[in-house]
Amino acid sequence: MNMLIHNATGILTGLRGDAARSTGSVRIRNGRIAEMGNLSPLPDETLLDARGGVITPGLVSTHHHLFQTMLKAVPTAINKPLEPWLRLVPNTYWNRIDERALGVAARVGMVELLLSGCTTVADHHYLFSELYPYNPADVLFDTARNLGLRYVLARGGTTQARKFDTDEIIPAPTEPLDVMLRRVDDLVRRYHDPSPTSMTRIVLAPNTPTWGATPTELREMAAAARGMGIFLHSHLSETTNYVKFCLETYGMRPLQFVAEHDWVGPDVWFAHLVHMDESEIALMAQTGTGMAHCPQSNCRLGSGIAPAPALDACGGRVSLAVDGAASNEACDMGAEMHCAWMIHRAVQGADAVTAEDVVRWSTSSGASILGYPELGSVEVGKIADLVVHRLDSPRHAGLHDPLIAPVVSGAASVRHVLVGGRPVVVDGAIPGLDLERLLEDARTVVGCLDSTGP
Ligand SMILES: [Zn+2]
Fold first, then answer.
1. Which CATH class is domain 59-369?
2. What is the tens place of the pLDDT at every residue in 52-93?
3. Residues in domain Amidohydrolase-related (predicted)?
4. Distance from the alpha carbon of residue 233 to the mean position of ligand 1, in angstroms
């Protein structure tokens, strides 16, 4: 579809410095940005009126667990930190998630992501069990395709059973390394498209390097992923326990440990990294290893505040992510941007991070970390994943600098979303989606999850 987006108040480009802001119209041809500036409509193009709104690149969430969308606000864990929360939420419910529950969870999560301006999501899914009579990957890819979202499956799993402080729970699935790698290879053959415009990709993503695999296996995983031409992802240093465990068990801090096992580089990114010292931040930057910064989840679980501005300041790569909705209660990239803008200022001062920094983390930097260099900025030649944010509510009245509203005003306020130039959100709604029905399905799934105990 050829299109001209016109009448916007301005553009936040996702770039650095003076290039962070622009104005004018955006012309889209064959799914890419063809021209920008003072443009007149051409006879063969559709006009998208962005009057009073702000254009940004499509937002990129680099760490999620979509299955958790049906596990929000579980009462037993609402005030618990990470480890009891893991036991009481994902590890208590994992075996009750049937094909319907996963489909509804993925659909609700992706709908919320799209309505918050997110066009690309990396979903760390780690529940692959012989007990399931369905293939979770097929459910997740089908849901993303139906909604038009770019979907990166970070295929999780573990070779080691995690020990918790009680043995009431059914252990989450584990698999021998050779089985895991064979299954990942199958997924790569079926779903991995390395092209710049790819809608589907696979990443190898064991649950955590410190607990999820042996040191030897970590090296084998890194070599196998690179042999398959795919990226590596995992959790790291979310709590002080990660650091303590690593120091006690391996005699080094987590970043040094993963570096020793070939788990750093521009093809690796980690979620959280809340607890890093200066040497680890420097190692992240030197190696081009990416951070998926999840400030709302880190707040919710009381994990701390990741040193994202420090990593950014020394040339490191920072992206933003919503994490699973079971530790966020939302999949809203607008709210996540607002939290990222606020939280560092609370502890480091009012100049710790700018709205433009947060937009860059959430767009071009996230796209780069996922290996999409042609996504994530509003520039001529780039792929037309774009968002028009509306500024027509009481919240937006009175702004002297309306361009930064998508970050500073709080939760998302999205009017239109394009993926590769194709409209996927139109006037604040997803065409063809029966939202009432989806919300009813979600209520049914929550009822079933709570009534089918182990
Ligand atoms: Zn996570």
1. alpha beta
2. 999 999 999 999 999 999 999 999 999 999 999 999 999 899
3. 54-424
4. 11
